[in-house]
Amino acid sequence: MDKITVHGVLLTLLKRIHHPKGDVFHGMKKSDPGYSGFGEAYFSTIHTDDTKPWKKHLEMTLNFVVPIGEIRFVIFDDRENSPTKNNFFDVTLGENKYQRITIPPGVWVAFQGVGLRFNLLLNLANLEHDPNEIQRMENLSDIKYKW
Questions:
Q1: In this structure, are strands 120-125 and 108-113 parallel, antiparallel, or unpaired?
Q2: CB–CB of 93/71 below 8 Å?
Q3: Once rounded to an integer, what is the mean pLDDT over residues 114-142?
Q4: What whole-number distance in Å separates Cα of residue 143 and Cα of residue 56?
Q5: What does 74-100 look like in DSSP terms, one character per residue?
Q6: Extents of the domains making up the chain
Q7: CB contact at 8 A, 98 and 67
Q8: Which residues, in sequence order, are bridge partners of residue 11?
Q9: Most buried among 29, 46, 67, 83, by the most CB within 10 A?
Q10: In the beta sheet, which residues pair with residue 134?
Q11: Region of residue 58 (phi > 0: left; psi between -120 and 50: alpha; otherwise: beta)
Q12: Number of neighbours of residue 37 by Cβ within 10 angstroms
């Protein structure tokens, strides 16, 4: 398992149950680590080699699952009182590494499509979308990281 280098980030192994007519992909149960309520679920796609730049939720906990393709996530901790301040965590999740990443409020996240075909992301968020609780950086280079 990956060594998590940002406080509050969790990786949870998920079950993929094979069925001859189509597999079942577990996402989240309310008894799972990282569950902090339900606000909304949405899907997003990202094209191969594209990167969605940095964003930080101030209140929302993110729970990302990648059932199709592969997506690389980079998390940066700039929280003042965090024991992992200025640390990065870099992990790729997808069909061959089927896990859920839980990202607490207050840390930056950016992600890149690395699967060679369709890359699908599911977010199981604890709050409904609110544009007033998000900070964004439009340029990936605003946080120095070697992609």
A1: unpaired
A2: yes
A3: 96
A4: 12
A5: EEE---TT-TTTT-EEEEEEETTB-EE
A6: 10-129
A7: yes
A8: 101
A9: 46
A10: 57
A11: alpha
A12: 9
Burial class (CB in 10 A: 0-12, 13-18, 19+), 60: buried
**Residue indicated by tokens 């980079």:** 74
> Cα dihedral angle (30, 129, 45, 52), rounded to 10 degrees?
-120
Q: What is the pLDDT of residues 52-106, one digit of tens each?
A: 999 999 999 999 999 999 999 999 999 999 999 999 999 999 999 999 999 999 9
State the CATH architecture for 10-129: Sandwich (2.60)
Q: How far apart are CA 71 and CA 16, in angstroms?
A: 17
* Across 30-44, average pLDDT: 95
Does residue 120 contact residue 45 with C-beta atoms inside 8 Å? Answer: yes
pLDDT digits (tens, 9 = 90+) for 2-32: 799 999 999 999 999 999 999 999 999 999 9
Which residue is listed with tokens 């989240």?
Answer: 28
Q: In what order do the strands lie in the sheet with 62-68?
A: 10-13, 99-103, 62-68, 120-125, 40-45
Q: Which residues pair with 44 in a beta bridge?
A: 121
- Scan for tokens 């977010």, then name that residue: 123
